## 1
Amino acid sequence: MFKKLAADALGLSDIGKVIEPQDYDKTESDDYVLYEKGEKIYFIIKTKADEYCFTNYALIHVDGDSAISKKRTLKRYDYKYNSLHHVSLETAGTIDLDVEIKFVIGETTFSIDINKSYAEKIKDLYKSLVTIEQIMRDNDKYRNHMLDSLDSAKKTLSSPGYSQGQSPAESFKSITEFTNTWLKNMSDSYSNTDFGHVFDLYIKN
């Protein structure tokens, strides 16, 4: 505790700040946003070493080796391919100088400390991430139901006497084509690429 307080007092800890929308273009992560494809920044947290840029499509992490190094590694986590879970928020205590938001995206765990003066803004980010997590959980459930339904349909279509006058090769082709089309349509229905509508509910830029 005392070491942490001393580090905060000396400015040695990596406590982040929330970047205002008018200053997004001054950040490194802004250079890597896919504006050409409709990507939009909703929230940026900047620490001495890192930037965490939340867009409608992805989390863009500008990962710094240390606060004194200029070397950066860009990591992108698209929501479409990386599930979001275990979102939590640790609020500031009486003597704490920071709040902490935690989450897992894909297989990567994040724990970000932010100056408690931004606590209200971080609550809005927390609500956004929790809502996205809930949508992803529902999508996973619907996809499982979808696969169970498909399995039942395949068993029925491939059962003896269900060829409807087709040869085995024709029957196999029909089932395969139907399955591919159906899977694609259902996958598109239960896989979100753009979560801008969620961020718009809670974050006003």
Note: The domain at 1-205 is CATH 2.30.29.50 (PH-domain like).
## 2
Amino acid sequence: MTGHRTLRATLTALPLAAALGLGLAAPAGAEPPGIPDPATAKTQLDELKVAPEGSMDGYSREKFPHWIDGPDNCNTREAVLKRDGKDVQVGSDCYPTSGSWYSPYDGDTWTQPSDVDIDHVVPLAAAWRSGAADWTQEKRQQFANDLEGPQLIAVTDNVNQTKGDQTPDQWMPPLADYHCEYASMWIGSKHKYELTITDAEKSALQKALDGC
């Protein structure tokens, strides 16, 4: 299905589609760099510190400045749209004028960038609760705009909004076939930034990796 909301399958139907094997494989290049393979992800998971979630006191998205301009004057969102899309053409302002975006979370493809969100794989609020509250503003900005690790990915907007700031024990992508990859991205990002995980979070990630 392509970029028309009237043709979008309902989210409640997506798990059934995944169970029937109807999910499409993500096209090459439509994912962030630095995703650990399952064996590496298992090792990294064991290296993460397990601790209760911290408080949301003091949290604000403004403490994670994004989207910032890069050296080419394109901001981080525009850079991910270009990276994760297919046949993407951009105007002089870096905003895409054409292209398509496959969302591996739910299997939909979109032709309008307005239908696509850039997901922080580890949500900013979840990062705050697991160590980022103690970071400098500079480090939080790096985290929120990380184009070199598995932290940013283009996905269907309302799927991302359904996720919110939930951790893997509370939310996983509608396509079950993507749980392994999602868990690996989550672990890779938390490992890179030395964030903590809860017992429930670790159990959910281990279950997802066991299904790889």
Note: The two ends are 27 Å apart (CA to CA).
## 3
Amino acid sequence: MTTALLLMDLQNTILERYGPASGDFLDRVVAAQERAEQAGLLVVLVRVKFAPGRPEISPRNKMFAAARSMSVGADDRGSEPHDRLLRGKGEVVVTKKRVSAFAGSDLEVILRSHDVTELVLGGISTGGVVLSTVREAADRDYALTVLEDLCLDADEEVHRVLTQKVFPRQAEVIASADWRP
């Protein structure tokens, strides 16, 4: 079984929303990324990014409609993965256009080209990209592990319910310190 570590939506603009709390979180993410690199695993950094003018966003899309009026440009630093994750150690950056890491991206092609059958997931938010990617990856028959402490959500109750009650139906849910690549 070939494994890939997916670190999702850990880009500058999103991490800034969590303020100082993102410091310890980012330390754990980097530690897991280092372990994955040392084990020779594929590390995929997934980001959400739109073209100038955001033509991909429908006004009917409640989640992304607010992004249509944002003043930041499509090529600004805010959409880039955090600098601590861009380590130059073979990580791949995938750009998506919707909530799931698979939606509007070339993730599936990359995973197939590396014969990946198992995904280890972390990201912001638990109720957004992590939930959508767990569901879609399970439907695509990937073996799944969610690193519970590498997921953040603005709503702690949503995070708790998903990691303790929903995700275990389709994934192993563990702390990042317990993950052995």
Note: Residues 2-51+78-178 form a domain with the Rossmann fold fold (CATH 3.40.50.850).
